[in-house]
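Hi F.,

I've been meaning to write this up properly since the lab meeting, where we talked about keeping a consistent format for the predictions we share between groups. The idea is simple: the sequence comes first, exactly as it goes in, then the structure tokens exactly as they come out, then a line or two of notes. No screenshots and no reformatting. I'm using this chain as the first example so we have something concrete to point to.
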Amino acid sequence: MHTTIIAEIGQNHNGDMGLAKRMISVTKECGADVAKFQLYDVDLIFNKDFEWYKEAKQAQLDHQQVIELKQECDRVGIEFLASIFDTTRLNWILELGIEKIKIASRSIYNKGLMAAAARSGKDMIISLGMYKGKKFPKIDTKGKVDFLYCIAKYPTPLKDLKFSKVDFLKYAGFSDHTIGIEASMVAMARGARIIEKHFTLDKNMHGPDHRCSVDPDGLKKIAYFSKLAEEISSAKG
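Output, unedited:
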């Protein structure tokens, strides 16, 4: 079983397009399958008194930048993916011919966005960190829907993970906000088919997500573990 490794670049480019493109190349070199970004209008999701408002504003990508990042992913041969937080940015990525749509935890109750994403018929990956229902949400779409187990804490303490109660035959995978790589490895060992992990070139950089991100060495280890697990699980006696 192959586990798809999503390197969540997110906001960790800090608004520097040169850095963002470099990070795309490095994620490919490290063995990730997908390079992922976050597309938002900061004023639609955060108040100006939000702790990281200034940093989120600096990392906000415009339409042309999104086009350039998709082109860079195509150039290096890695899938482009983005969490989209409004229908305007959903339309941006649909115009680019993307394969999948990512819905972040905070958007699960955005009825307009969820309906528009479902109508697109594209495959969807949905994190459920802020979802309060006891059953998976029903998504009326022709596309495939994969739900990710997620704890909406940044970083997530290991003690808050409840893997013993998580069925990775039902959850497609794990969106990992812990520090380190151990939780991702345990999730893969328990059957996760998708691992989403924040990625940075330097954990000491300023910004909200660098601390709970993996550096290139950590991403390489996750990708290697994924390949090793695939070889072991597919070995024939």
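Notes:
The helical segments are 17-29, 42-45, 53-58, 63-76, 87-95, 111-119, 182-189, 216-234.
The radius of gyration is 17 Å.

If this format works for you, I'll send the rest the same way.

G.
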